[in-house]
Amino acid sequence: MDWLYPFAVLIGSIITLMGLGLPVAFAFFATNILGALLYFGGTRGITQMVANFNDAVATYALAPLPMFLVMGSLYFRSGLGEKVIHALDLAIGNLRGRLSYVVLSAGAIFAALSGSSLANAGMMGSLMAPEMLKRKYKPHMAYGPILGAGSLAVIIPPSALGVLLGSLAQIDVGALLIAGVLPGLLLVSMYAVLIWVQTRIDPKAAPQYPVPQVTGREKLKAVLVNIIPMGFLVFMVVGTIILGIATPTESAGLGCAGVVLLLMVYRKFSFAVLWKSLDDAMKVTAMTFLIISASMTFSQIFAFSGASNGFIQYITGFDLGPHGIVLMMVVTVLILGMFMDQVSMMLITLPLFMPIASQYGFDTVWLGLILLLAYEVGFTTPPFGMLLFVVLGVAEPGTSLKTIAMSALPYVLLTLLLIVIIMIFPQLALFLPSLI
What we know:
Elements: H1 4-19, H2 24-39, H3 43-57, H4 64-78, H5 80-92, H6 98-114, H7 117-134, H8 139-151, H9 160-168, H10 173-179, H11 181-201, H12 216-226, H13 228-242, H14 248-265, H15 271-304, H16 307-316, H17 321-337, H18 342-360, H19 364-378, H20 386-394, H21 401-424, H22 427-435
């Protein structure tokens, strides 16, 4: 059990430092310095850590990340999202729970355009939560769909977290992004069925109210003007990858160009919006690249100390079988999700999980998608699920975290069900990547 001591030192140091409030990147750098001095050749290990910086971020697979962030920020800051919500509101009509369906539908569209769960949930919450509560929707019918719609951005491409996971785990980023399309659509359908069941069980949870009568022609016009063009953007990003026309990096560039073109068509373009979007992307990208630099050295130290190999031998010694191993990974992520953000979980778990995946011969795209879904669940689990706090920030005064968490619970359970479905039917995730 010699591997246990470096394992405890490295993992324990990171968890302790993050628990004390140190930012993720700096917690990893501090642990790396300690690990380099103890297990990685002393000062020579620190020199290697500095040399890793360039290699870590000079990766072609990371190139789509800042462009996806720019694309999503342009979309949200320009006000195009409000046009989509208005068109969906007209198209759905006077269906019971209509605003919940509007949130879910708009969230699915925004997920295919932004790649950011926080931005998705923040926009839907600020625009729709006050209106839903004004219409006497019960909290679980107002906040639940917002949380569900926000989490869709993790799996429906372009997923910023998917790009990061693919880069850290050495998974084909394009295949991983495309793998989320069918499971993402299935998850949207499961969420829609959930809303329908909730309104059948308790009709008063989403009261119907008079809405202006709109002709079919007006609905069609709203869809053609405000929703169909978004389909053009989805094709630019997702369709070009599936058809083999573009790499993920090229599709990200096409997506940015497509958003700028739409802004000009709708007369929403301004250099102020462009500058703010570039500023948003720069801040997130800089911190992400710093974290990736720290992660690369951590993985090297972890392997060099013997902790990685010892942990693999220890886990494989239980003979849990492939599905048992994957379930163990998912449970680990769910537990960590109660206390950490997604990036922190990825940086800690991927150096442990990916060698085990190689040992068992798992398809890395399949496993990567399962882990993305597990990280998504961690985004909505108390006490530190980030999406919970985003929605709590836009909730009416006096709303408790427990109320938000209970609203998210059915959506979390459906996501866990989807993980089981993908484990049983891997082709749900692998069919589209096989076409590339």
